[in-house]
Design goal:
This protein is mostly helical. It has a domain of about 110 residues. It is built from five helices and no strands.
Length: about 160
C-alpha cells in the first residue's frame, strides 16, 4: 500500500521507479510482443485449424510485422499502430477463438449462411489480411510522401532561387 503513495516519486537517485516506467502499448516493441504472442497462439492451435487458415493467419502476422518494421525508419503513424494492435490483440485472436470454440464435428457442416464454419473462418482471416495489406500500403505511401516532402525542402533550401543576387 505504501508503494501506491510513493508512485511517481521515482528512486532515490532520481531515476523513475519500475512502476512508473510503463511501456507505451503502441510502441514497436509492444506491438512486436503482441504479434509474437499471436503467432504462438496460431502455432499452438495449428492442428485444429485448416491449413489454409493457418497460412492466411500467418500472412496477416507477417504483413503486420512489416508494418511495425517501418518504425525503424520513422515513427509509426498512430492510425497504423492502433490498427496493428487491434488486429493482433482483438480481431484475429477473436476470430480464431470463435472458430476453435466450435465442436470439431460442426466445422465442415454447411450452416444458414450457405458456408461451413471452416469456409467462414478463411473468409474472415482473408478479410483481415486484406486490411493488414491496406495498412502496409498506406504506411509505405506515407513514407513516400515524407520522402517527397523532404526532397522538396532540400531542393528549396539548397538550390539557387530567383531571389539570389
Amino acid at each position: 500500500m505504501m508503494a501506491w503513495f510513493r508512485r511517481g516519486q521515482g528512486e532515490p537517485d532520481g531515476s523513475p521507479s519500475a512502476d512508473v516506467l510503463e511501456e507505451d502499448e503502441d510502441s514497436p516493441e509492444a506491438l512486436f510482443r503482441d504479434l509474437h504472442q499471436l503467432v504462438s497462439f496460431i502455432n499452438l492451435n495449428a492442428g485444429r485449424l485448416s491449413n489454409e487458415s493457418v497460412v492466411a493467419a500467418r500472412c496477416v502476422t507477417d504483413t503486420l510485422r512489416e508494418v511495425i518494421a517501418t518504425a525503424e525508419a520513422r515513427p509509426l503513424d498512430i492510425h497504423a499502430a492502433i490498427s496493428v494492435r487491434a488486429i493482433s490483440t482483438d480481431y484475429l485472436p477473436t476470430t480464431l477463438r470463435s472458430y476453435l470454440a466450435l465442436d470439431d464435428q460442426t466445422v465442415a457442416t454447411v450452416g444458414r449462411s450457405g458456408h461451413t464454419p471452416r469456409q467462414l473462418l478463411l473468409q474472415q482471416v482473408d478479410s483481415l489480411w486484406e486490411a493488414a495489406t491496406d495498412i502496409l500500403a498506406a504506411t509505405r505511401s506515407h513514407d513516400v510522401d515524407a520522402l517527397t516532402t523532404q526532397g522538396n525542402f532540400l531542393r528549396t533550401k539548397f538550390t539557387r532561387s530567383d531571389l539570389d543576387l
